[in-house]
């Protein structure tokens, strides 16, 4: 193979992917596609995870132009035949550890890799937020992305957060995902890279100690309200219950009256620009 015309990239599984030419037609998991878009690369299509509905989740999509973008489905409903028929030069997927392609059934992922080059980047709890950004930036550069990372924008947003935390950490911040009118999932900050990043910037994060669950602790709304957070980072993905459906519960109403609510997307695009936008919202709430 002529190395002057081939393209190669070693993904987070340690797999070296080599293609005979530079990939121009890229399909991606929605979060990865949104990240590439922030670097100026438009994917030919996207797919979602088992948590998504029939339509792409706008929260995960970032600034992707969904109206003109092809969706290949989500989770078990991903149409692999349609994806392969679209003739992508490359598929960009994500993993939460162990090298498993997230959002597609294991056998389907194996079948896909037999037909199309697949690059997998780790977005799981064992990687820092900056590490994830850097890996996507590295991939975007090899794909000849027209836009560089928004490093100055992110640095400004980080400084804004630091300026609003004091020696005691400032306002108490609780991250959660609403399971429904009776139940909440409280995030354990140490298992979420973006929450760890906030902690490193000086934000006082509420840690729901005890209980089962590696990433979340399941509680009723009364227990969540008893934590008396000043700011709530509320999951806005489609699998989380919308705020309007919670207002029948007095404990949620008490939380709304007490705390500032910030939209939180645990699967935000892995770009400097997207992370700066989130930090700006947190800084404003603090």
TrEMBL record:
Keyword set includes Signal: yes
Pfam family membership, one: Peripla_BP_2
Keywords: Signal, Transport
Gene Ontology annotations for the cellular component aspect, listed alphabetically: outer membrane-bounded periplasmic space
Domain of life (superkingdom): Bacteria
Domain Fe/B12 periplasmic-binding: 71-255
Any one of the GO BP annotations: iron coordination entity transport
Location relative to the cell: Cell envelope
Family note: Belongs to the bacterial solute-binding protein 8 family.
The protein's name in its UniProt record: ABC transporter substrate-binding protein
Organism, scientific name: Streptomyces liangshanensis
């Amino acid at each position: 193979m002529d190395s002057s015309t081939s393209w190669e990239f070693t993904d987070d599984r340690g797999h070296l992917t080599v293609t005979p030419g530079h990939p121009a037609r890229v399909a991606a998991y929605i979060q990865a596609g949104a990240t590439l878009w922030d670097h100026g690369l438009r994917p030919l299509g996207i797919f979602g995870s088992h948590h998504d509905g029939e339509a792409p989740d706008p929260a995960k999509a970032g600034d992707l132009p969904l109206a003109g973008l092809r969706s290949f489905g989500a989770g078990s409903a991903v149409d692999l035949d349609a994806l392969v028929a679209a003739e992508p030069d490359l598929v960009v997927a994500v993993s939460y550890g162990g090298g498993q392609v997230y959002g597609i059934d294991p056998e389907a992922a194996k079948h896909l890799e037999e037909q199309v080059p697949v690059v997998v980047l780790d977005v799981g709890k064992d990687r820092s937020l900056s590490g994830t950004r850097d890996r996507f930036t590295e991939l975007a550069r090899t794909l000849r992305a027209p836009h560089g990372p928004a490093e100055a924008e992110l640095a400004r947003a980080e400084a804004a957060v630091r300026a609003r935390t004091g020696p005691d950490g400032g306002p108490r911040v609780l991250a959660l995902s609403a399971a429904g009118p009776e139940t909440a999932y409280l995030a354990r900050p140490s298992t979420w890279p973006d929450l760890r990043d906030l902690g490193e910037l000086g934000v006082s994060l509420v840690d729901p100690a005890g209980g089962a669950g590696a990433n979340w602790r399941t509680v009723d709304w009364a227990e969540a309200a008893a934590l008396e957070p000043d700011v709530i980072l509320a999951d806005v993905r489609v699998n989380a219950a919308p705020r309007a459906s919670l207002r029948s519960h007095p404990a949620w109403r008490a939380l709304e009256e007490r705390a500032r609510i910030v939209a939180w997307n645990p699967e935000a695009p892995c770009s400097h620009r997207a992370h700066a936008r989130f930090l700006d919202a947190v800084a404003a709430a603090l």
